[in-house]
Amino acid sequence: MNNLLFLVPIAIGMGLVGLASFFWAMRNSQFDDLDGAAARILIDDEDEDEIDSSGKRTGDSG
Description:
Helices cover 50% and strands 0% of the residues. It starts with a helix and ends in a 22-residue tail after the last helix. By secondary structure, it is mostly helical.
């Protein structure tokens, strides 16, 4: 029974820390672009080079 006197306030405190972290993340726009990171990983950087009319790449990489 004495353990509950310590564990209940600790559990409530951890819940409040989690709730405060969630509201902090919402205010700092952490959830604004959920699909952007997933889409950016699929985009290949080499696609940024343009191909001219003869079929050659015009970028610096190659």
